[in-house]
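=== RUN LOG ===
request id: a7f3
mode: sequence -> structure
chains: 1
length: 344
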Amino acid sequence: MTFQKINVIRFLELSEITQIADVRSPSEFNFGHIPGAVNIPLFDDKEREAVGTKFKKKGRLAAIIDGLKYTGPGLVSKLELGLKIAKNGKLLVHCWRGGMRSEAMAWLFSLGDLEVNVLDGGYKSYRRHVLESLSEKRKMIVLGGMTGSSKTHVLRYLKSSGQQVLDLERLANHKGSAFGALGQPPQPTTEQFGNMLFNDWKKLNRNLPFWVEDESRNIGSVFMPDTFYLNMQESPSIVLEMDVNTRLPRLMEEYSAYSPESLKVSVLKISKRLGGDKTRDAINAVETGDFAKAIEIVLYYYDKAYLFGLKKKNSKNIIYIKVDSDDIESNALKILEAAGKIKW
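=== RESULT ===
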């Protein structure tokens, strides 16, 4: 059997019902890949480097001969894995540029009577498509509010009520502050975050508005795609105004569950911004179990930083909602009422 090359639009359409085999090296795959793809590398990392060096020094034929020496013994296991993951006798394949690696593996899989389609332009074309798509202007509503305003909980309530929501913090495995990594799995790379964001983005109805939480350009170690972030800054924002006393109980419930040591490490991450005295006071409060005091000290910094960032936005695009409770459903309904007044 033979294989054919298809463009990224068709490739992604087929990926809804057909398994993707990413034949790049493990390090390439781990840095960023199409969500749901399975890594069946033609070369491991050292082999890829060696073949690439041979190509540059000796040319294509010499590289192919070396490549066959590396891959020959493992072709059976690669074919067996391809047969195992294929759905209905079909498989999608890609490498970095859609060149020799994907063509070689497509040939191998076709020997197993699989119908194979190769991504024209490879993963590189996919990444270009991701960034172009995420730069599109759509009806985005940004939910803002100072730390502890239960924005994430409100957004999840909105999603359960049928609203379209992109959960940036879930995708980033981080809650956005110096304490945001607590209780979270390791963060993805910035590239993989973009891929996962696009995976959710492409499922949205572009004719309806969607919600995101107000974030800095970075969420922990992950950075948002530049144009997507700029579009966030220019989109309508609905800001919850909630005083410290209303925010404290939920923050205490959430963070007092973590060990004092992990909390102190998080405080030290912002020590330069807090200043020496406030840092010492916050750490002492953690050590003595006075979590309310520690949180108040940290909130002073985060509230100040958030208000500073808010001033950079167009005030005409901001709707403020003052709330006197932390009731998720009640606050969500107020937010939806405000959203209905946005003129697109």
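=== NOTES ===
Residues 4 and 149 are 52 Å apart (CA to CA).
The first helix runs from residue 8 to 14.
=== END ===
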